[in-house]
């Protein structure tokens, strides 16, 4: 069970020197937050609830591209974004924290050619010692899968049914605990998704699952920072690098540094340093610096380009 601070009631530490700072070069600098316009697009999402026997009532938000100007005759991919531990307790702000918000902006929608967006929230609570209870990695009675997988797929099915005729390929993406859930959904429903983006996932990669997803041509974009403070790169990615390189359906983004749009190295400290774990900020910046330069030449049109090329 993760123990995380209550981010809403404490200030971000912009004074302490991160432990990884000793690896910075002289021309590099620390940046303390994303540069995109956050918390400005929540009104574009509609709120719903879904009743699940195992997990209880699941809150979720949906962005409908047709409602916001896309052609009613178009076919659009569906992007489900899964939040990290503790984020669901922030309610609507979870839309930003999980990475979904910027993909609902007119700019990103235009770049993708339109897309539906789903943001489900798991039922997290905080224990007496500060631990997070009820996160995505809460297992069911079998001990093999999350109590939430059936509900999350049910929400996905419901949105697709309500908009049938306009639904294209299905994607799932999530960071940290949401990265775990991304892999879990792929394992439980390998025939369901067309693409997925596990980000800073606290989860060991299943090599058998990689083979299955390759056979089914499920496109993967796996993202992980090499100095991640919470999901250790050496533990969760390095043992599988050679395997990942063998598959044509897998693209990888493993930067030395997680950076913000201003080019600075990300530091987000709330009693412990987690800036390099917050790869989701780079994803939400569309893997682009503020001057329009790609953060990686392999993704010249960013995440929106990867989605559009696979939709």
Provide a descriptive summary of the structure in words.
With 311 residues, the protein is α/β, with parallel strands linked by helices. 22% of the residues lie in helices and 19% in strands. It has nine helices and twelve strands. The protein has helices at residues 94-97, 106-112, 149-162, 177-188, 207-215, 233-236, 241-244, 279-284, 302-309, and strands at residues 30-31, 46-52, 56-63, 76-82, 116-121, 125-126, 132-133, 167-175, 195-199, 219-223, 250-253, 265-266. An eight-stranded mixed β-sheet has the order 2-3-5-4-8-9-10-11, with helices on one face. The protein has a two-stranded parallel sheet with strand order 1-12. The protein has a two-stranded antiparallel sheet with strand order 6-7. Strand 6 (125-126) and strand 7 form a beta hairpin. Helix 2 (106-112) runs parallel beside helix 9. The longest helix is centred in the middle third of the chain and has 14 residues, at 149-162. It is globular, with a radius of gyration of 18 Å. The mean pLDDT is 95.
Sheet with most strands: strand arrangement: 2-3-5-4-8-9-10-11
Q: Give the proportion of residues in helices.
A: 10-25%
Gyration radius over CA? 18 Å
Q: What is the string of SSEs from the N terminus onward?
A: EEEEHHEEEHEHEHEHHEEHH
Name the quaternary structure. Answer: single chain
User: What structural class do helix, strand and pairing data support?
Assistant: alpha/beta
Shape by Cα distribution: globular
Strand content: 15-25%
Which regions are unreliable across 5 or more consecutive residues at pLDDT < 50? Answer: none
Question: Biggest sheet, in brief?
Answer: 8 strands, mixed
Counting DSSP E segments of at least 2 residues, the number of strands comes to: 12
* Distance from first to last alpha carbon: 36 Å
Number of helices: 9
- Average of pLDDT: 95
């Amino acid at each position: 069970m993760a123990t995380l601070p209550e981010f809403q009631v404490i200030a971000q530490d912009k004074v302490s020197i991160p432990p990884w700072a000793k690896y910075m070069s002289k021309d590099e600098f620390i940046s303390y937050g994303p540069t995109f316009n956050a918390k400005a697009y929540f009104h574009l999402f509609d709120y719903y609830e879904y009743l699940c026997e195992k997990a209880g009532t699941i809150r979720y938000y949906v962005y409908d591209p047709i409602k916001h100007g896309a052609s009613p005759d178009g076919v659009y991919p569906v992007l489900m974004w899964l939040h990290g531990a503790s984020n669901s307790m922030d309610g609507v702000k979870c839309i930003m924290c999980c990475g979904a918000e910027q993909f609902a902006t007119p700019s990103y929608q235009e770049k993708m050619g339109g897309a539906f967006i789903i943001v489900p929230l798991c039922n997290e609570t905080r224990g007496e010692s500060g631990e997070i209870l009820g996160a995505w990695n809460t297992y069911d009675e079998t001990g093999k899968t999350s109590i939430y997988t059936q509900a999350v797929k049910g929400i996905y099915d419901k949105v697709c049914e309500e908009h049938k005729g306009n639904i294209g390929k299905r994607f799932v993406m999530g960071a940290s605990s949401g990265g775990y859930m991304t892999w879990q959904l792929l394992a439980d429903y390998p025939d369901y998704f067309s693409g997925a983006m596990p980000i800073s996932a606290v989860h060991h990669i299943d090599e058998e699952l990689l083979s299955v997803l390759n056979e089914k041509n499920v496109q993967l974009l796996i993202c992980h920072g090499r100095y991640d403070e919470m999901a250790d790169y050496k533990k969760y990615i390095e043992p599988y690098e050679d395997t990942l390189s063998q598959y044509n359906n897998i693209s990888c983004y493993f930067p030395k540094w997680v950076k913000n749009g201003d080019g600075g190295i990300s530091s987000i400290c709330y009693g412990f340093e987690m800036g390099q774990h917050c790869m989701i900020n780079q994803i939400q910046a569309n893997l682009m610096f503020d001057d329009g330069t790609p953060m990686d030449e392999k993704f010249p049109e960013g995440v929106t380009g990867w989605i559009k090329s696979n939709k």
